[in-house]
Predict the 3D structure of the following.
Amino acid sequence: MDRIRIVGGQPLHGTIPISGAKNATLPLMIASLLTEEELILDNVPRLADVALLQRILGNHGVDIMTNGKRPGDSAYQGQTLKISAAHIIDTTAPYELVSKMRASFWVIAPLVARMGEARVSMPGGCAIGTRPVDLLIMALEQLGATIEIDGGYVVAKAKDGLRGGEVVFPKVTVGGTHTALMAAALANGTSVIENAAREPEIRDVADCLNKMGARISGAGTSRIIIEGVPRLKGARHSVLPDRIETGTYAMAVAMTGGDVTLQGARPDLLQAALDTLGEAGAKVSTTNAGIRIARNGAGLMPVQVTTEPFPGFPTDLQAQLMALMTRARGTSRITETIFENRFMHVQELARLGARIALDGQNATIEGVDVLKGAPVMATDLRASVSLVIAALAAEGETMVNRVYHLDRGFERLEDKLSACGADITRIAG
Ligand code: UD1
């Protein structure tokens, strides 16, 4: 298993290109199941989760061609996927595949919408507390599917097709909203989703579905209206930039000091996090190239943050912010409201000398003057990158073990950081 070795203390200077968003790419690839025609996706990041979803879709009979590099492409240019679900040969998504990545459960919506049935294993994914699928099932039922649970599988059926309906989510769910959106796109009649997730990735998927011939309005707001159509066609769509990758590197720069342009980043996708960074003492500005983030020698100020659905501060940046606040001048408080048990990074940060107290969903972080390198273990995707951020500012060497978690969501992380002056190397093993 690969490890990453970091020697802290170097400020970051230069440019970091931001990749396409993982959390848009996955549902966009899944949306290809809705049509017999070809869906072309540009700016797709090279990530382990994308490769895994390629395998999962392949199991359903989906054909995916990946364009190689063309002359003049930069090292970080996203890939182009040409996806064809002309012939779906299997409507079952098995446990061995779905258990590796929670989002693959979402295939249930396009499969039942187009094929009239789907049999999908209950998901696995990040070890961050209970992550049920009850609301996704509720959405499918509201749109006319019958659901049975059989041997760990969710079996959805709609022999005569789905029908338009009203889906009112009792809590905001990104996966639930993607599910309802894809199912309603091919349902007979009009559907309304109330209390829909407003995450930018929902809007990106809706934009792509509209290019495919869907009739969706209101995506990006909490009320989405979908007029179902009998069939969808092929389209070409470019994935929006990754706001979590953007926020992660912005926090790395705030941590180490320096001056970095996050190329291709869009401030409107993470305003809450940029505001927090500003409060903490980083200088954030927008340029034609993207977002510029800088911090000179001044100390970091503590902050009080609560994670919320978009447009609030994202749970996917909570661990990274906590790493940053370990070096603030004073006491910070972070409240996690989206997931239970999303504080697994706390113990590992403590190994570097962080002082963090947990009380239920609240973390209190006492800033310290010095962090010291140590061996640490990556536990999940976002937690592992928080260890990288802490290590970049720690004295001496940190070895991050189990970095396959990082490879699920960050493209060439060590290359992007070392190009800006960080002392970071991957050790194959
Ligand atoms: C997506 C993101 C993930 C992000 C999360 C919240 C992708 C691939 N993943 O995950 O990175 O951290 O949104 O922004 O886009 N819930 C239920 N019942 C359900 C579904 C969800 O109770 O049926 C709960 C969850 O346990 C959680 C909350 O709703 O407490 C939000 O989860 P959700 O928005 O669905 O997260 P994901 O779509 O899994």
Summary: The chain has 14 helices and 24 strands. The chain has two domains: 3-18+241-427, 22-238. The first strand starts at residue 3 and ends at 7. The mean pLDDT is 94.
